[in-house]
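tokens incoming
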């Protein structure tokens, strides 16, 4: 309605003044003597308010109405109408001379017009902003708005249907050229004073130079666009790499640049391109003394036409070399810094994206225009140092595994060398998991680096100034200076607490030229996977005495599977057989095997000792080849009435056979592997059945076979026994009967047997049943076997003075 309102309208002639808020009404004359009041509609009231405001030039009334509309449209997310109201408010503030308020609402509206590409509206609003900057003396904003207006895609025909064009006048190509020349003339003045009366409030001096930033989202990308492309993807240090710097401008007239500064993330690669047609000023020649200076025949940008410049860049540092920005210098005090863009990811400015103009590529090579990047990878120089990591064979749990590392110079001198060691789980699960640690593992790490020993002295990670240990899986050590052809070695000491594969990474970094910390570093890497394995598998077996079988009630009663524990009779000697199996590919030496008791649990409850009262044998350490088993027999004697006791812990001392020197070496120390034995139940046997017979028999000669039944209770025991004949013997005696054994007494059954065949023969099978407990006893096949000689054997005892050392095993 504000746009459609005409000054000739008389919408307010019949509206009377309000006596109170909201009382506006229209006075209608019905007759000369009669008049009525008609309430106003919203449309009539708005027309009346605008008419009154414009008639009396009441800008505050108009601003109040527009501000209310602006707030309502903003709340409704109607951004276009909100921007339009903000634009109208800004023009009213501008007419009142309130520049600060005008710029606030101009800036709100201009952001939407830039985003949606309303070029004619942009021309008008930028003209207002340019005039606001001129009035308040803001040089930077004046130059920015002027350059943006000069680069807008507008022509003379764009303002035919648009009545108001603002302070800048109607948009045209000629007007754009005038604005460009005005700005260039302002910033290119060497003396720093304005050259015309138009710029009286705008000054550019050496004390306050002007610096503009153009990033990827800046509206000034239409003014100057910088594309940078390396011709290669990777390059060696100190090797030239070609780079093309391309500039594009949408300004209407020629845009001449005095010099270009091409800046990289490695400052030593920065260089300056000087316009050979311009004489460098004193400021330009002294401000960039450290830059390499190149020259170009001319640095002149034509409208919508790429300016391509190709030069060589050389980097002496490995890593990523990236062009950061391109700075255009015009005059002594004006800079435009453009963020460098890669051709492969560069987009056209939104305002010019759909305009009719000649499109060209930033580089002559079309492939480079679609794939070129502003960054290049500077590779490390080829190392001339050999790194050797000698990890032979698997590592065994519990031992200190030694890995020799050798650094040999083969062309480079080693300055400021460092040796880094990393232990990594190849599966990525980590090297520390307390829930999976073996019971006797020290600490919470499966694998840890214990230390590093140098070539001349033993040095650990903890006690050397040149070594720093950051974590259990990381080590750092300095390498002394090495000339060409020299070598240096050390030994890594790694310990496994549980079987686990580990990837060992060893890297050497050094400077081939000097000890300067900023000098080029060369890296050499080596990795090797080491398998951590358990050296031995320890198992055990609890046996009852040979041919003496106590009745254990736990074997008669049904017990849950989870509650089953080995049971041994009280006050009886049981047999504990410890079996050790070599699980590795390397031969081992068993130095000793003992069973240590738990002071808190065992004490005087149970005694476990070697059956032979010796650790192994008198022949020395036992050689255990891969896959071989070693057994040792211990005796268990429970001596208390407790129902459950701990047998203790097996302590096996071993070492690699390659490290074993001689049996006479008293300083031999091995690795201790521990295995905790399970708890055992202690039971008092009510009945014990024993079989007694000679160790061997002779064919045809009779011998006595005894069956002893011992009652250890205070009750009378009813015992049923039976004997089944064997084909290898003739027997005499009671074959089936029932007897009663008095409390705390023993009953003996005797049989006469005559062997009928030689060789191993099975004795007659005996079955003894205790009626009170419904438990039957049958002798095992091993206990019922006896060897029968065909004739009386002749044994000769002979004293052996000396014999070679041998290994004796308990089978």
């Amino acid at each position: 309605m504000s746009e459609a309102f005409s000054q000739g309208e008389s919408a307010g002639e019949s509206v009377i003044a309000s006596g109170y808020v909201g009382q506006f009404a229209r006075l209608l004359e019905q007759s000369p003597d009669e008049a009525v009041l008609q309430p106003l509609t919203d449309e009539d009231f708005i027309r009346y308010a605008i008419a009154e405001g414009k008639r009396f030039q009441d800008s505050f009334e108009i601003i109040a109405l527009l501000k209310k509309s602006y707030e309502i449209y903003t709340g409704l997310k109607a951004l276009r109408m909100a921007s339009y109201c903000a634009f109208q408010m800004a023009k009213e503030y501008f007419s009142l001379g309130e520049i600060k308020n005008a710029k606030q609402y101009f800036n709100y509206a201009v952001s939407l017009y830039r985003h949606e590409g309303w070029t004619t509206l942009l021309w008008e609003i930028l003209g207002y902003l340019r005039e606001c900057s001129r009035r308040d003396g803001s040089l930077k904003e004046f130059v920015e708005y002027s350059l943006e207006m000069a680069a807008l895609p507008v022509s003379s025909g764009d303002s035919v249907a648009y009545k108001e064009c603002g302070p800048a006048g109607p948009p045209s190509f000629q007007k754009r050229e005038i604005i460009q020349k005005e700005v260039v003339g302002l910033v290119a003045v060497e003396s720093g004073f304005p050259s015309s009366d138009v710029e009286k409030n705008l000054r550019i001096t050496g004390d306050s130079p002007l610096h503009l930033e153009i990033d990827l989202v800046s509206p000034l990308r239409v003014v100057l666009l910088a594309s940078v492309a390396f011709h290669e993807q990777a390059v060696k240090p100190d090797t030239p790499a070609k780079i093309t710097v391309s500039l594009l401008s949408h300004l209407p007239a020629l845009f001449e640049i005095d010099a270009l500064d091409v800046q990289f993330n490695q400052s030593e690669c920065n260089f300056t391109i000087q316009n050979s047609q311009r004489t460098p000023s004193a400021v330009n020649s002294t401000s960039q003394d450290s830059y390499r200076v190149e020259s170009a025949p001319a640095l002149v940008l034509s409208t919508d036409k790429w300016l391509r410049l190709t030069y060589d860049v050389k980097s002496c540092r490995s890593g990523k070399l990236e062009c950061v920005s391109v700075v255009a210098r015009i005059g002594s005090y004006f800079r435009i810094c453009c963020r460098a863009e890669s051709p492969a990811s560069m987009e056209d400015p939104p305002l010019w994206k759909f305009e009719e103009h000649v499109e060209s590529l930033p580089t002559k090579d079309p492939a480079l225009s679609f794939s070129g990047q502003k960054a290049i990878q500077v590779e490390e120089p080829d190392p001339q140092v050999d790194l050797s990591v000698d990890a032979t064979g698997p590592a065994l749990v519990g031992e200190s595994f030694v890995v020799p590392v050798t650094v040999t110079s083969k062309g480079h001198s080693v300055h400021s060398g460092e040796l880094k060691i990393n232990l990594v789980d190849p599966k990525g699960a980590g090297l520390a998991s307390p829930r999976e640690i073996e019971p006797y593992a020290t600490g919470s790490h499966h694998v840890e680096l214990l230390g590093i020993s140098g070539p001349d002295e033993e040095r650990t990670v903890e006690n050397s100034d040149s070594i720093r240990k950051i974590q259990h899986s990381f080590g750092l050590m300095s390498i002394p200076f090495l000339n060409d052809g020299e070598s240096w070695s050390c030994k890594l000491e790694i310990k496994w607490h549980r079987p686990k594969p580990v990837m060992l990474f060893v890297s050497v970094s050094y400077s081939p030229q000097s000890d300067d910390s900023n000098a080029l570093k060369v890296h050499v890497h080596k990795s090797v996977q080491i398998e951590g394995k358990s050296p031995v598998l320890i198992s055990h077996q609890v046996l009852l005495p040979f041919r003496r079988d106590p009745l254990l009630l736990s074997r008669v009663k049904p017990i849950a599977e989870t509650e089953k524990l080995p049971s041994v009779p009280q006050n009886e000697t049981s047999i504990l057989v410890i079996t050790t199996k070599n699980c590795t590919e390397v031969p081992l030496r068993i130095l000793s095997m003992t069973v240590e008791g738990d002071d808190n649990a065992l004490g005087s409850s149970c005694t476990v000792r070697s059956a032979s009262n010796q650790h192994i044998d008198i022949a020395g350490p036992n050689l255990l080849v891969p896959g071989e088993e070693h057994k040792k027999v211990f005796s268990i004697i429970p001596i208390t009435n407790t129902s459950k006791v701990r047998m203790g812990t097996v302590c096996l001392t071993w070492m690699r056979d390659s490290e074993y020197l001689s049996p006479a070496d008293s300083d031999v120390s091995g690795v201790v592997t521990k295995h905790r034995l399970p708890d055992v139940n202690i039971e008092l046997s009510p009945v014990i059945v024993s079989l007694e017979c000679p160790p061997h028999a002779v064919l045809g000669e009779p011998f006595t076979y005894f069956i002893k039944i011992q009652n250890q209770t205070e009750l009378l025991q009813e015992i049923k026994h039976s004997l089944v004949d064997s084909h290898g013997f003739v027997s005499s005696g009671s074959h089936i009967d029932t007897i009663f054994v008095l409390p705390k007494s023993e009953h003996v059954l005797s049989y006469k047997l005559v062997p009928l065949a030689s060789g191993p023969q099975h004795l007659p099978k005996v079955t003894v049943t205790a009626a009170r407990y419904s438990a039957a006893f049958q002798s095992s096949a091993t206990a019922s076997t006896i060897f029968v000689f065909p004739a009386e054997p002749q044994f000769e005892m002979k004293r052996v003075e000396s014999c070679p050392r041998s290994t004796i095993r308990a089978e």
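note: The longest strand covers residues 319-330.
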